[in-house]
Specification:
- With 118 residues, the protein is mainly α.
- It has helices at 2-29, 39-52, 54-57, 78-87, 102-114.
- The chain is elongated, with a radius of gyration of 19 Å.
Length: 118
């Protein structure tokens, strides 16, 4: 009888863990009611940017004296951004489609668009 209870408890804990991970992923990728990215998605994009992008684009989204553009001035065009990140640009920016998944690219967009200069 004790083994039965232990297996049920383990199954319940496993189900709770799976649901928690799924909820966290949903929250990270979700937008608020106005269509704006939630802070968790922006934060995820900021950490992805720091790890994958800042060495070329600079820690503040600009790197004077290089060929990289000032990302604070990137147009409000998510499709263009995603295409550029996935496919690269002019043989100067490498493609990232095999390195970053769609959620990471979406989070990068949330971060960069949240820092756009008016």
């Amino acid at each position: 009888m004790l083994k039965d209870g232990s297996h049920k408890t383990a199954a319940i804990l496993a189900a709770v863990a799976v649901l928690t991970v799924a909820l966290a992923a949903t929250i990270r990728a979700a937008d608020d009611a106005t269509g704006n990215p939630v802070q968790a998605q922006i934060d995820h994009g900021e950490s992805t940017y720091a790890e994958k992008c800042s060495h070329c684009h600079g820690p503040n989204m600009m790197n004077p004296g290089t060929i990289t553009p000032d990302l604070r001035a990137f147009p409000d065009d998510k499709t263009r951004f995603v295409t550029t990140v996935k496919n690269g640009k002019n043989n100067k920016m490498p493609p990232w489609a095999d390195i970053l998944n769609d959620d990471e690219i979406g989070a990068l967009w949330a971060f960069i668009s949240s820092r756009r200069k008016p």
